Amino acid sequence: MHPPLTLHRHPMCAEIIEEFQKCHLEHPIAKFFGECTELKIKLDRCLRQEKALKRKANFEQSKKLKERLQALRKETAESDS
Fold first, then answer.
1. Residue 36: what pLDDT?
2. Taking a C-beta distance cutoff of 8 angstroms, is the pair 20, 40 a contact?
3. How many other β-carbons are positioned within 10 Å of the β-carbon of residue 24?
4. Which segments of the protein form a coiled coil according to its record (predicted)?
5. Mean pLDDT per segment of 10 residues, for the chain of length 81 residues?
6. What's the pLDDT score for residue 23?
7. I need a labelling partner for 60 at 20 to 30 A (CA). Which of 6, 33, 36, 68 fits?
8. How confident is the model at residue 6, as a pLDDT?
């Protein structure tokens, strides 16, 4: 199962999403028998790669935030004593 396939939310995979949706429109019955499977696999890989990039960016952002919070706590502890 994949997330909702909106082009503005998945700019990296926009081309594959369009091809996948076109395949489903052109083959309404055959899609159940594997007609669009190759595109589905490509789409899954693209979405997985996109998610990994987002995860890495979020991790870096949280790392910076933790460092900033530690610095603030240190300053607060020093000013209290």
1. 94
2. yes
3. 15
4. 36-75
5. 81 93 94 93 95 96 96 88 72
6. 95
7. 6
8. 84
Residue type, 67: E
pLDDT given for residue 1 in this prediction:
67
Q: Which two tokens stand for residue 56?
A: 């890495």
Residue 4: CA count within 13 A, CB half-sphere = 3
For residue 23, being part of any structural domain is answered with yes
**Residue span of the structural domain in which 24 resides:** 11-80
Q: Which residues of 41-71 are buried (b: 16+ CB within 10 A; e: fewer)?
A: eebeebbeeeeeeeeeeeeeeeeeeeeeeee
- 23: Cβ contacts below 8 Å, ≥ 6 apart: 31, 35, 36, 39
Is the residue at 30 inside a domain?
yes
Q: What's residue 51's pLDDT?
A: 94
